[in-house]
Amino acid sequence: MTGSLIPARVCHFDLGALCYGIVLAAWDRGLGSVINGQGIMRSDIVREVANIPEEQVIMTCVAMGYPDDSFAANAVRSDREANSDFVHYVGFAD
Ligand SMILES: Cc1cc2nc3c(=O)[nH]c(=O)nc-3n(C[C@H](O)[C@H](O)[C@H](O)COP(=O)(O)O)c2cc1C
Questions:
Q1: Is the entire prediction scored with pTM above 0.90?
Q2: How far is CA 31 from the centre of its chain?
């Protein structure tokens, strides 16, 4: 089934949803996550540590750990565009 991961297939959408579910399930169990493309950039390290063979595609990486709230970087809160600025609901009342 390696052909199912050909770029532009809908599997990318599915994997995004799966990734989101993993992150939410982890958070429910007290684990913080950082979805990261850096693990793909350094796939040589990820392959070695996670024992992933070259013939398998790494689509994304999710770093997990128990959050340290006393660490300054974890106090950063990113600004978000308001949903109403870019989400349009059609057929639903506001
Ligand atoms: C597909 C994807 C790839 C990402 N890659 C990286 C990355 O390589 N390095 C990084 O620091 N954050 C990366 N992020 C962002 C982090 O997962 C996270 O969203 C960010 O640290 C901001 O946190 P916040 O969403 O809680 O504000 C990526 C997010 C997504 C969805």
A1: no
A2: 14
